[in-house]
Design brief:
The structure holds 2 protein chains of 2 kinds. Chain A is an alpha/beta fold. Chain A contains 7 helices and 3 strands. Classes of the chains: A alpha/beta, B alpha/beta. At the A-B interface, helix 1, strand 2 and helix 2 of A face helix 12 and strand 22 of B.
Chain lengths: 156, 627
């Protein structure tokens, strides 16, 4: 559901037999968070063995900026980790900028997710990126994906 | 959807969004006319095919509103070519007048109406259940559960429409329109379609009352045929056997099947899925319900199927318990999910509830809501701030000047800190409701705000009415040159449509001037001081005053790279007073660690925030520089 600057959640299911497009709280094997407060908002979707992978992005809503102006990225990251220790916070902005554009932040997350889950073939992801994006964005996206993919090895 | 999918061979499996699957279904069915009005969650059907309009030989265009779109499609269908019209649920209300008459004249080539309901609701003013329209208009309605069915049912709808010579309603919900899943493509068949307008007055002229009576009889006789005609398409089916029978349709069916699988109940319960929603498939339901001891109806929105099941069982003297929305097993509001379905199933079977319902290891966290705000650089933000400033400067309290709003992004001005919208009702209602307040005797100024596309869609007649009757209102037409909220579709002001059709632009100013209100001014809201002065000057004047606040949507301008600069907060100067945020509510500004920060990738460079910084801490950034 596209709501510009609003709160957006997508459900992705991969499996042999998938019927319901939605799943319930407590059922997510992975939560991929592009922003910290939004990750916290959806944290109850995580399952018992689930892993949270979140960007260290902090983009508070208007309400949060006004009522909690002193909060910072680390506060929310700490809150998420204290509620769910199986959480990896990625310096996604830094890696995306290194790849060439902050807009490739999602590719960084995808890279880390795939390095840890091993669910998708890297070649398949690269082919998909080449199919849907224009040339310039393709190079940046693939770079961002690779930086995200390598991040857990370097960090852990 | 990519070109290679539009033209891909049969048998290929590709991931498609429900709406893209419908678009591919239209190509497979050789549809020639596709019209509609943008509305979430229906818009992507038209958007998918627009770039390929010429290659496919399809007329794919947005119409000024749903009713006009429907009438275009009806005219085309009567003339012998397959046509589809798309809309969100409220669009069907706009279309209802010609819809009911169309059931009497029927069609020649297939005519399919796609209506997308929105349980939740996610993006719609009501949780309208458009299934009642099938019953009201007496038109066949079918409903798919997933993208694959969405494609198949689209093609089937055309076949049924042509067999019956009736328009067919293809009814979807958000989770069918917007879900992406694998779809196996089918054959693209070309069919003979010769344009020819049939002349048959009793059929097409609704002025003859005897003709109308005859056509009503004809319509009823057609409806008798539907259940037999659709048999060959397997729209309805059932799986399993058991004393408990579940009747369901649409995406709810998929929640039911998966819930039963997870509860290990699949072998004990019978699931009856209806693809045909109207007329009720009586024989099918009766055959399948004959041995049931009780029935649970799982559906979204109103207890529509529940009522049909009750009618069919009662008519056949079968009195068994029927559970659903009436009994409280399924909620009357909101969309369904597996949790709700499982809760209903566990209460009707002997399953230990606690083990399956309490499995979240982390409880839901209390995070401040994030309703979608006006975008960074939005010209409407300037318009509303100008209005607010002008009213205050004029000595009015904001609580005494009602602002009647309309449907579109500018309605997001209802949220703090702008808080400048009192109503958002239905397309075009701002001007007429403001007029109503005035003629009811409200003695202070009243304001109507309406967007450009909404004005074209349903605002022209209300303005005509206000001018004609001579009321004292201020109308602000917030013109950002695009249907922005639904994803930047074209308006009648464009020179070329998305499909490449050359348009004759029709400017709002020319329409407004033709209606001859007492005053018309066109201003660029980015010139904030000018806007403020103009409102101060005219707010108390008698008659209908129209301000056209014209500035292109900031996101469109961003795409065209019009902005030269962005802004940044000088951290050493910022005192953390929050004035920038509290005045503008711009989502590109955040507070972190007690200082304001501008998210450089989100800033569209309008500079409004810098105007309101009392410490002059917000400064322009030259393109390419880093703060």
């Amino acid at each position: 559901m596209a709501q510009r600057y609003g709160s957006v959640m997508g459900f992705i299911r991969i499996g042999i037999s998938v019927k319901s497009p939605l799943f319930d709280p407590g059922e997510a094997d992975y939560i991929l968070g592009l922003e910290l407060t939004e990750t916290l908002r959806r944290l109850h979707y995580i399952s018992n063995n689930g892993l949270v992978i979140a960007a260290d992005e902090y983009k508070p809503s208007y309400a949060q900026s006004v009522t909690h102006p002193s909060l910072k990225a680390e506060d929310i990251a700490w809150k998420i980790k204290s509620l769910w220790p199986k959480t990896i916070i990625i310096p996604a902005r830094r890696l995306a900028e290194k790849a060439g554009s902050i807009r490739a932040l999602n590719m960084v997350i995808l890279g880390t997710f795939n390095a840890l889950s091993n669910l998708l073939s890297t070649e398949g992801i690269k082919t998909a990126i080449r199919k849907v994006l224009p040339e310039q964005a393709t190079l940046i996206s693939i770079k961002a994906y690779e930086l995200g993919y390598l991040y857990p090895q370097q960090a852990l | 959807m990519l070109a290679h999918t539009i033209f891909a061979s049969p048998g290929v499996k590709v991931p498609l969004m429900g709406n893209e699957a419908i678009a591919r279904g239209l190509v497979e069915a050789d549809v020639r006319v596709l019209v509609g009005y943008p509305g979430t969650p229906s818009s992507e059907v038209i958007m998918t095919l627009q770039p390929y309009s010429r290659e496919l030989g399809i007329y794919v265009e947005w119409a000024v509103n749903e009713r006009v779109a429907f009438e275009i499609a009806l005219g085309a269908s009567i003339t012998g070519v397959r046509s589809m019209v798309t809309m969100k649920a409220p669009g069907l209300n706009v279309t209802s007048d010609p819809l009911l008459s169309a059931a009497y004249c029927g069609v020649e080539r297939g005519l399919v109406i796609l209506v997308a309901d929105d349980p939740g609701p996610h993006t719609t003013q009501t949780e309208q259940d458009s299934r009642w329209y099938a019953k009201l208009a007496k038109l066949p309605m079918i409903s798919p559960s997933n993208p694959q069915e969405a494609k198949e049912f689209t093609k089937i709808a055309f076949e049924i429409s042509e067999e019956l010579k009736l328009p067919v309603i293809l009814r979807t919900t958000t989770r069918v329109n917007h879900t992406v899943s694998d779809v196996v493509l089918g054959e693209i068949k070309k069919i003979q379609q010769e344009p020819k307008v049939p002349r048959d007055e009793p059929r097409f002229v609704r002025a003859g009352m005897l003709w109308n009576l005859e056509r009503h009889k004809w319509l009823n006789s057609r409806l008798q045929l539907v259940e037999d005609i659709i048999n060959k398409y397997s729209l309805n089916n059932s799986i399993g056997e058991g004393h408990l029978c579940i009747v369901t349709e649409g995406v709810a069916h998929d929640y039911v099947v998966e819930s039963l699988e997870e509860l290990g109940l699949l072998s004990e319960v019978k699931v009856i899925k209806l693809g045909l929603l109207y007329p009720t498939p009586r024989k099918f339901l009766l055959d399948n319900l004959a041995l049931c001891k009780s029935v649970l109806v799982v559906e979204e929105l109103d207890p529509y199927l529940e009522e049909q099941v009750k009618i069919v069982l009662y008519e056949n003297g079968i009195i068994i318990p029927i559970y659903g929305k009436t009994t409280g097993h399924i909620p009357l509001e909101g969309e369904l999910n597996k949790y709700i379905v499982k809760r209903a199933l566990t209460s009707l079977t002997k399953i230990n509830q606690i083990s399956l319902l309490e499995k979240t290891p982390v409880s839901s966290q209390d995070v401040p809501l994030r309703p979608p705000p006006l975008c960074p650089g939005c010209p409407h933000r300037f318009s509303f701030i100008a209005l607010k400033t002008a009213l205050l400067k004029k000595g009015y309290k904001l609580s005494e000047i009602p602002i009647f709003g309309d449907i579109g992004c500018y309605a997001l001005a209802v949220y703090p800190p702008i808080s400048m919208l009192w109503t958002e009702h239905s397309m075009g209602a701002s001007i007429s409701m403001a007029m109503g307040a005035k003629i009811a005797g409200y003695h202070k100024p009243v304001v109507a705000v309406i967007g450009d596309s909404t004005f074209y869609h349903a605002g022209i007649q209300p303005l005509l009415e206000a001018v004609n009757k001579g009321v004292d209102i201020l109308v602000m037409i917030l013109d950002n040159d695009v249907v922005a909220m639904t994803g930047h579709q074209s308006t009648p002001a464009w020179r070329m449509s998305e499909s490449g059709r050359v348009l004759r632009p029709i400017s709002i100013e020319s329409i407004v001037k033709a209606l001859n209100p007492d005053l018309v001014v066109t201003l660029d809201p980015y010139n904030l001081d000018e806007m403020i002065s103009a409102i101060i000057e005219i707010i108390d004047k008698p008659g209908v005053k129209v301000i056209i606040a014209k500035h292109t949507c900031a996101l469109l301008e961003r795409r065209r790279s019009i902005f030269e600069s962005k802004y940044y907060v000088e951290e050493s100067t910022c005192k953390g007073c929050k004035a920038c945020i509290i005045t503008t509510g711009c989502p590109a500004i955040i507070m972190e660690n007690n200082v304001a920060r501008i998210l450089i990738e989100d800033c569209n460079g309008c500079g409004l925030c810098s105007r309101y910084c009392p410490y002059k801490a917000i400064k322009p950034l030259v393109k390419g520089e880093k703060p």
